[in-house]
Amino acid sequence: MSVSLKTVCAALALSVVASGPLVAQERKYDGIGRTPTPEEIKSWDIDVRPDGMGAPEGHGTAGEGERVYLVKCASCHGEFGEGGGRYPVLIGGHGTLKSMRPEKTIGSYWPYASTVFDYVKRAMPFGDAQSLTDDETYALTAYLLFMNDVINEDFAVTQDNIGKIEMPNEANFFMDPRPDAQPEGGKACMKDCKTEIKVVGRATALDVTPETGSGGMGEGGSAPAEQSAAEPEPKKEEVAAAPEGDADAGRSVFNKCKACHVIDSPKNRVGPSLHGVFGRAAASFDGFKYSKDFQKAGDNGLVWDDESLAKFIADPKGYLGGVIGKEKASTRMAFGGIRKEEDVRDLIAYMKEAAK
After folding, report:
1. Environment class of residue 349 by beta-carbon count within 10 Å: exposed (0-12), middle (13-18) or buried (19+)?
2. In degrees, to the nearest 5, what angle opens at C-alpha 293 toward C-alphas 290 and 299?
3. Which helix (H) or strand (E) holds 144?
4. 84-114 CB burial, b ≥16 within 10 A, e <16
């Protein structure tokens, strides 16, 4: 195990203190560099250990972190933590680690909450690292943990508890017990080592050549069966039954939603399934953990129909807040809403067609 930066810096700091004035005890390493000052060591010594040691004073909640996330993080990681381009997914992925396409997110894979803080503090936002305050970093950590169902919405993450938060996948990190995983005699092999390395498994299949024509690609490079043929045109009678919106156009608008919701099956993702949503009471879909404000809206009698869904889609927090008598309600949905009325009408028309 390598010696940590904190240990090296602490030893250097002690040598500075014990040896008197800096000039009198400065060490030379083949004429390169100098001994760092205690102030310099303090500015570098920002790591936070898995047990929380090294965490600075501060606190933050998920609500505070959501505001920071939308300004500092969403442009790369998506408004819902779904990732974008080469930037990774942050939310979801539960139960995928043994699949062909595992999603290693904070909720599905990360072993320690304290090292979420550590990484964000020292490396994020991309291109402007270490610009976040300690409170902003605690708030971001709380928001990401809340969105991954690790903590409750009103839980305040602080220096006192960040090393005690239990992560879903922590137990699956352990020292490798296999004898062949350790060098013989504690030394790395330098001769007569293994000559053949055999790959016995892969995390994902890299089948990049399409198997069915040159059409659109699905996962693994082959065109999925449901996309191998052109999408059927909406039936004329269905379009006529919903003159307020164009279901075909609404299918494109739903692209803004499908990172977190499915509509054609009763399966929850980051957000609850929208299958059969019309006529359903708010916060009532089985197996999904709703915010307290969403549960209150359901208790107050909110039922999803054309009108209520349209208002919610346009301004999620404002509309929900009106239902429960609060200026802005708290929801797990970071999406700010669809402002264009035509898009809302089209989306409602598509949902009525697809959510049956």
Report:
1. buried
2. 85
3. helix 134-147
4. eeeeebbbbbbeeeeeeeebebbbbbbbbbb
> 3-class secondary structure for 165-230?
CCCCCHHHCCCCCCHHHCCHHHCCCCCCCCCCCCCCCCCCCCCCCCCCCCCCCCHHHCCCHHHCCC
Mean pLDDT over each residue of the chain, to the nearest integer: 79
Alpha-carbon distance of 281 to 171, in angstroms, equals 38
pLDDT score for 233: 53
* DSSP per-residue string spanning 76-94: HH-TTS--BTTBPP-S--T
Per-position DSSP letters for 219-273, written without gaps between them: GGGSPPGGGSSPPPPPPHHHHHH-TTS-HHHHHHHGGGTTTT--SSSS--SSS--
Q: In whole angstroms, what is the distance from residue 186 CA to residue 172 CA?
A: 25
Task: Please report, for residues 98, 214, 226, 247, the alpha-carbon distance to residue 229 in angstroms, rounded to integers and kept in the order given.
Answer: 31, 12, 7, 19
- For 22-93, list the strands marked E by DSSP: 59-60
Of residues 243 and 69, the one with the higher pLDDT is 69
pLDDT per residue over 118-143, tens digit each? 999 999 998 899 999 999 999 999 99
Enclosing H/E stretch for 346: helix 341-354
Beta-carbon neighbour count of residue 253 at 10 Å? 23
Q: Are 320 and 348 in contact (CB under 8 A)?
A: no
- Where do we find the tokens 């352990």? 174
Q: Model confidence over 269-290: pLDDT tens digits?
A: 778 888 889 999 998 888 888 8
**Which pLDDT value is given to residue 208?**
52
Looking at residue 1, what is its pLDDT?
Answer: 41
Percent residues over pLDDT 70 in the chain: 76
Q: Is-contact 13 38, C-beta < 8 A?
A: yes
Residue among 87, 153, 163, 95 nearest 293 (CA): 153
Residue 125 contacts residue 105 (beta carbons within 8 Å): no
- The pTM score is 0.54
Instruction: Provide the token pair at 290.
Output: 């709703």
